[in-house]
Structure formats: C-alpha cells, structure tokens
Specification:
The chain is mostly helical and 478 residues long. The protein has two domains: 366 residues, no CATH class; 64 residues, no CATH class. Helix content is 69%, strand content 1%. It contains 21 helices and two strands. Helix 3 crosses helix 4, helix 3 packs parallel to helix 5 and helix 8 packs antiparallel against helix 16. The chain is globular. The N terminus and C terminus are likely disordered.
C-alpha cells in the first residue's frame, strides 16, 4: 500500500505539477494551457498584445546606447531592426527549446536595461566595439551558468527567489509611472494630455476586463492600448516622423560592429550576466506561479538561464545588447492567464517580421508612451503581489521575515538614494547603485548563509518567554 507521500509523488506530472490540480490542465481553455490546441491565426491578437506590452521597453536601451556611441541615423535604424529580430528569436528559443537551451515556457525576451549603465561607461572609455566583444563572451558565461545551475541553485532557496520577484515588481513601478507621465526626457512630461491618455488607457483596460466574458476578456490590455492610441490620434499626440523615407523591406545586418575583446570589459559584463541569471530565476518562478499555478522545474530554470545566455551572444553578433525575459509580459500573463506557446510564438513572429519590415516597427514606435503606461501600471502591481504570495509560500517564519525585511529595505531603499554608494568602486556602483534587484539578491543570499536556522529563532523566542524561576527550574532538570 502506498503511503500518502508516495501517493502524492505518484500524482506529480513529468513537469512537476500535480495531476488534475494545476490550472493549465483543468480550465478547458486552450489559451491558458501551455500546449493547448489553437490555430496560429486565432492566437495572433493575443500574441500581438504581448508585443505591444514590451515593444517600447525593448527599443529604449538601443536609443540610449546609440546616443552614447554617437551613431548616425543609419546605424541607429540598423540596431533597431536587429533588436526586434533577436527579441523574436530569443522568444522562440525560450518557447521551443533546442537541447538544454530554452525553458519551454511562455517567456518573451527583449533588450535588457541591466547593462545600460556599464555599457555607457565602456563606450566612453573604449568604444562600442569593446562592448560587443564583452556581450558575446558574457553570453557564453551565462550559458555555462545555466548548464551548471544544479550545482549553485541551492544558494537561491524559495525565500531568496521570492525576494528577487518582489524587487523586480518594485523596480518596475517607476518605469510604469514614467511611461504614464509621457516617458523619460519627454518635453511635456506630466502634462494633462499625457495624464489623460494614461488614464483613458487604464480605464479602457479595466472596463474591458470587467464587462467582457470568456476568452475575449484576456484581450483587455490590447483593447486599452488601441483605445488610447485612437484618442491620441484625435489629440495630435501620435508622432508620424518615423514613417518618413521608409523602405518597404530591409534586411537586418549581421555583425554591423566588429567585436574587440578586452579582459576588463568582459569581467564587468560577466558580473552583470550573473545578476541577470538571478533575474531570470525570479522571472521564471513568477511566470510559472501566476500562469501555471506551480513552481518551475529544475530543467525549466536551467533552460531559461542557458537560453538567456545563448540569445544574448547572438544579440552581440547582431550588434545589440544582451537580452533577458521581460517582466512586462509576466505581468500580462498574471492578468490574462494566456500561456499557450503557440500564441506567444505568434508574437515572436511579429517581432521577427518587424525586423524585416520597417513600417511595422515605425507603427509600434509611434504609440505615445503615456498610452502604454496606463496599461502597464496594473501589470507591474501584479508582479509585486506575486512576490508577496511567493514569500507567503516560503513561510512567514521569523528567519524568512528577517531575510525579506532587511533585503527589501536595503535593496529598494538604498538604490533610491544611490549617492550612498559614492565611496564604493565604480564597478560596484555600475552594478548595484541603481539596481534594486541585484542589491536585494546579494543581501538575501548573504543573510540566508549567515543567519542560523529557524530552530535558533524558536529557541530564542521560547527562552525569552520564560520567567527567571522557570529558567532556573529548567536548568536544574538538565
């Protein structure tokens, strides 16, 4: 006869879920099933929604780097094309793994902001060619981290992963608020027009979600973006300058910059790849939590990190910065529960197509950022709540509470006052001063290693509750 533990173990599926319990198995809606049967064409609106959610954030690092490197309009346009292409390729790799590369999960990839500060510093001193060499080698390093994840994953227990997810959510709040106001460096930031556009998009998104029924409800973000875009057209807030002198078809350029390999730049970038690997763990854990109602398997975690490294090296070959999983799309999954790989693949196809057809990228890029901000505010809030749920799942023991409280306070609080790190080396500042995810993670790992076990906390608590007489009596019985 099987014991209850054996029975529970036998009910586990090969993907680590409990048979008959995980939402992906019992909803009957193919959109909410990882491998649900749905036609490619029917999934396009949902895939399109995922593209809209990440499009601006995917290109923003390219604009910053192009300006820092003093690239001309032709070089800038080529990088934008390549960024769209590699984002689509990276998404496909994560959706449909090759060997141990990729998670097999609905992960959407895009150019990461994590590397921007260090990249600008390297450009200023050594040039963009050195950046490309470091991106290529660093991607190989992250790929190795993924392949060897089973040897170091024990340093990232559930409470540490939960803290990473929570800090990811908090780090995105300012991104959503900045978009809501009109975007970083916008001349009319915070204007009533931008605030109206953000509010209209948010209200349209919420109204659609509340009023619609069935699978249509899962297109609420797309509806909010379309309504916001139409209102922006009437308000004259859509910028059509990007449509001037457009080519019908343009082939992305392979290796537009010859890489130069510098040891110092490679080490700096490798440290950031380590931080990115931790973010991927948090993103993957959050994704399976909100989308599939379970924890990721070891194979999925390792595959997601390896895929992140491989596509980042490929991105370097196309002259772009490293890629990573986009938290914006995890927030979208938490709202819509759309996890079907074919659906997300349609979004990847749109990204790849946009890399060849400049008119597509110009259309996406013409969307006012305030419209996007209205729909992302709620998505980013959902990521924070997912982090809180993961902390609860890890358990509100005194030890876990201590780790979470100190890690989040230092990680989020100190990075809001980045001048506190002014006495630290420049390399340290470039990694931690503005990155609450990295800071929270490092503090959480250190506390997890040095704090005694929960038994110590319990003993200390019990001892403090005893009266002096009881303590003496207890000592006498030992």
């Amino acid at each position: 006869m099987k014991s209850p533990a054996d029975a529970q173990q036998s009910s586990q599926g090969t993907d680590g879920t409990t048979a008959g319990i995980s939402p992906e198995h019992h909803t009957g809606n193919p959109l909410t099933q990882l491998n649900g049967k749905i036609s490619f064409w029917k999934g396009i609106p949902y895939g399109f929604q995922h593209v809209l959610a990440m499009f601006v954030a995917n290109l923003a690092p390219i604009f910053i780097i192009a300006a820092a490197a003093h690239m001309d309009a032709t070089q800038s346009a080529a990088l934008i094309q390549n960024a769209l292409l590699v984002a689509g390729l990276g998404t496909l790799i994560q959706l449909f793994p090759i060997w141990r590369v990729g998670a097999g999960l609905p992960i959407v990839t895009g150019i990461s902001f994590t590397y921007v500060t260090a990249t600008v510093a390297i450009i200023a001193s050594q040039g963009y060619h050195v950046v490309i060499g470091a991106v290529i080698v660093g991607g190989i390093f992250e790929g190795i981290l993924g392949l060897t994840a089973k040897y170091w994953r024990r340093f990232v227990p559930p409470i540490v992963a939960a803290i990473v997810v929570t800090s990811i959510g908090f780090s995105l709040l300012s991104v959503g608020a900045t978009s809501f106001g009109g975007g970083s460096n916008a001349e009319d930031f915070g204007s009533w027009q931008n605030m109206v556009l953000g509010l209209v998009s948010l209200v349209a998104c919420l109204a659609f979600q509340l009023l619609m029924k069935g699978s249509a409800k899962q297109l609420s973000v797309l509806f909010g973006l379309v309504v916001g875009y139409v209102v922006a057209l009437f308000m004259g807030k859509v910028d059509f300058s990007g449509f001037q002198n457009l080519q019908i078809l343009s082939i992305p350029k392979f290796m537009p910059f010859a890489p130069t390999f510098d040891a110092g730049a490679i080490v700096s970038m490798a440290l950031l790849y380590l931080v990115s690997a931790v973010e991927v763990i948090g993103d993957t854990t959050a994704l399976t939590k909100v989308g599939l109602g379970r924890k990721p398997t070891d194979k999925e975690l390792a595959g997601s990190i390896t895929g992140d490294g491989v596509i980042s090296s490929i991105s370097g070959l196309f002259g772009c910065l490293p890629l990573t999983s986009f938290a914006q799309n995890i927030g979208l999954v938490s709202m819509t529960k759309v996890v079907n790989r074919k659906v997300i693949a349609s979004g990847a196809a749109i990204l790849i197509l946009a890399g060849f057809v400049p008119a597509i990228s110009a259309t996406f890029n013409s969307m006012p950022e305030a419209v996007l901000g209205g729909c992302t505010i709620m998505m980013f809030g959902n990521i924070i709540l997912s982090g809180f749920q993961m902390i609860a799942d890890a358990g509100f023991s005194q030890r876990n509470i201590t780790i979470a409280a100190i890690s989040l306070t230092v990680g989020i609080g100190f990075t809001q006052v980045s001048d506190i790190f002014m006495s630290f080396p420049q390399l340290f500042q470039s990694i931690f001063a503005h990155n609450c995810i990295a800071m929270s993670f490092i503090v959480a790992v250190i506390l997890n290693l040095v704090l005694p076990g929960e038994d110590h906390f319990l003993i200390s608590t019990d001892a403090s509750d005893e009266t002096p007489d009881e303590t003496v009596a207890a000592e006498g019985t030992r």
